[in-house]
Amino acid sequence: MQIPPLNPAIKNAPAWLLEGSKHLWMPYTQMQTVPMALPVVATNGVRLTLNDGRELVDGTSSWWTAAHGYNHPHIREAVAKQLERMPHVMLGGIAHEQVLRLATRLAKLLPGDLGHTFFSESGSVSVEIAMKMAVQYWINKGAKGRTRFVAFRGGYHGDTLATMSVCDPDEGMHALFKGAIAEQLICDLPTTPEKVEAFDAFLKAHKHEVAAVITEPLVQGAGGMHFHDVETLRALREACDRHDVLLILDEIFVGFGRTGSMFACDAAGIVPDIVTLSKALTGGTMALAATVARAHVFEAFLGESASRALMHGPTYTGNALACAAANASLDLFEREPRLEQVAAIAKQLTKELEPARAMKGVVDVRVKGAIGVIELESIRDADEMKRRFVEMGVFLRPFGRIVYTTPPLVIEATDLTRLTDAMIVAVGEN
Ligand code: PLP
Predict the structure, then answer these.
(1) 3-state class of 250 per DSSP?
(2) Where in the chain is the domain with CATH 3.40.640.10?
(3) Residue 123 C-alpha to ligand 1 middle, in angstroms?
(4) Which residue in 28, 141, 241, 347 is the catalytic one?
(5) CATH 3.90.1150.10 residue spans of the chain
(6) Could you list the pLDDT tens digit for every one of the 430 residues in the chain?
(7) Residue 351 annotated in active site
(8) Whose CA is nearest to atom 12 of ligand 1?
(9) Does the annotation count 347 as an active-site position?
């Protein structure tokens, strides 16, 4: 049986790690060559504790989820209380307070009339639902053939079959599946006046077959942490309005303060027709995602006939434990100064990562909100870089050509410096 190679960063590997690693299929992982995963036995604040007692400052927030740090007592308490009372009931014909309160709060928090939330349990599924919603919106309106999507180079929206089709088809991690998934209309983001004009003409030419335009607003995350500005988003909104096409903003990564405003669409002052949320929605505690629609989208599904309804219903939709975690997370966004903390993180990241710009092999250094990126010509040995990070007492996961951090929004300045120092050292050694 194949055992992942031993990881020199692991000390005193416990039996459950050695035995279990023969059976666990890890995500995005070449199981033959990637060193065994680090055994984490506890989390607290911004720290991960390894089996041998070492603590690592986490610079990733567990794929950008743990906005308030790990084990926040308020979220823990809310989930524990909900667990006592009722962990889950199906939303078929019955509902519960946590899901209804959460839907109400999201409606108040999101801009404009984004007021109708459909819950699922992962980001990819929430994007699938947004896409399905957009296609059925046009069917319900009697428009034929509007089944395709306009998406952007550098984009990433998930790993399921439909979401793969709106990821970057060439550079993205799903390039292998070309020909096996739906072919969408892939464009450059309109980041200059010329590109805006070209995009507008393109949308005009294709509007009869397009259900929606979909993008990650302000930051294309998993596609390489590429940034664009609010003007690009406004241009997309204007083009979609002009040609009567729906606009889906995937705020799964950027939502909940990550780029400096509660939602990226707030910074641009635009209201998408559909927005997807996940990751920090529960503060990194439970799996939950939301697809939120504006009134006109929701109303297109109303009528006497059952066939106009949205035919979707994940078993765990609106899970009570996850909604309790999300409600508690929203309490923290209300009570604690998260956006001020993001502004302070941005300032510190800018100052402390800037010296990398002059280093050999560095292509770019960029910061947006609580996202700090050093882009390199190439990473010589990513596994070795990860091992060095552990040695330096931090957890960071470089990918592609980038070394980045997206720390919990509550990180203290001294811990953030540990992350940025480690990034600079690792880039120097690359
Ligand atoms: N959309 C964006 C912008 C993401 O960053 C991700 C995950 O990284 C997803 C969708 C998919 O979310 P999930 O991994 O929960 O399916």
Answers:
(1) strand
(2) 73-335
(3) 5
(4) 28
(5) 38-68+337-429
(6) 656 677 888 889 999 999 999 999 999 899 998 889 999 999 999 999 999 999 999 999 999 999 999 999 999 999 999 999 999 999 999 999 999 999 999 999 999 999 999 999 999 999 999 999 999 999 999 999 999 999 999 999 999 999 999 999 887 667 788 888 999 999 999 999 999 999 999 999 999 999 999 999 999 999 999 999 999 999 999 999 999 999 999 999 999 999 999 999 999 999 999 999 999 999 999 999 999 999 999 999 999 999 999 999 999 999 999 999 999 999 999 999 999 999 999 999 999 999 999 999 999 999 999 999 999 999 999 999 999 999 999 999 999 999 999 999 999 999 999 999 999 999 999 9
(7) no
(8) 123
(9) no
Whether residue 127 contacts residue 157, with contact meaning beta carbons closer than 8 Å, is answered with: yes
Fold of 73-335: Aspartate Aminotransferase; domain 2 (3.40.640)
Report CA(387)–ligand 1 centroid distance (Å).
26
Residue with tokens 């003409």: 201
* pTM metric for this prediction: 0.97
Q: Which of 266, 279, 404, 415 is catalytic?
A: 279
Q: Please, are residues 253 and 370 in contact by the beta-carbon 8 Å criterion? A: no
Number of H helices, E strands in the chain: 14, 16
Element (H, E) at 390: helix 382-391
- Residue among 253, 259, 291 whose CB has most ligand 1 atoms within 8 A, to mutate: 253
Please give the Cα distance from 199 to 252 (Å, whole number): 24
Catalytic position from the list 58, 70, 137, 156: 156
- d(CA 424, CA 261) in angstroms, rounded, equals 28
> Which one of 3.90.1150.10, 2.60.40.10, 2.140.10.10, 3.40.50.720 gives the CATH number of domain 38-68+337-429?
3.90.1150.10
Among protein residues, the one whose CA lies closest to atom 14 of ligand 1: 123
Q: Is 28 a catalytic residue?
A: yes
Tokens of 292: 């939120």
- Gap from CA of 289 to ligand 1 centroid (Å): 10
* Atom of ligand 1 at shortest range from CA of 216: 3
